[in-house]
Write a structure and sequence with these properties.
The protein contains two helices and two strands; from the N terminus they run E-H-E-H. By secondary structure, the protein is an alpha+beta fold. The chain has one domain. A two-stranded parallel ribbon has the order 1-2. Helix 1 links the parallel strand 1 and strand 2. The N and C termini lie far apart (about 25 Å). The model has no long low-confidence stretch (mean pLDDT about 90).
């Protein structure tokens, strides 16, 4: 049997760092021009690239 994966939302770069450091297996995020979370800070293209490199 496989273990479930912990998927965490990240509304900002700082939250993504916290989620990864806290043991999240995966995170999901939105860019400034796409995404359904209207009140989230969301990510610039530069922050998305930095997030991929960090994770």
């Amino acid at each position: 049997m496989s273990l479930p994966e912990l998927l965490a939302p990240a509304g900002s770069y700082e939250v993504l760092i916290s989620a990864v450091n806290s043991g999240a297996d995966a995170v999901y995020l939105s860019g400034k021009k796409f995404g359904a979370r209207a009140f989230a800070q969301n990510f610039s293209l530069k922050e998305i690239k930095e997030s991929v490199n960090y994770a």
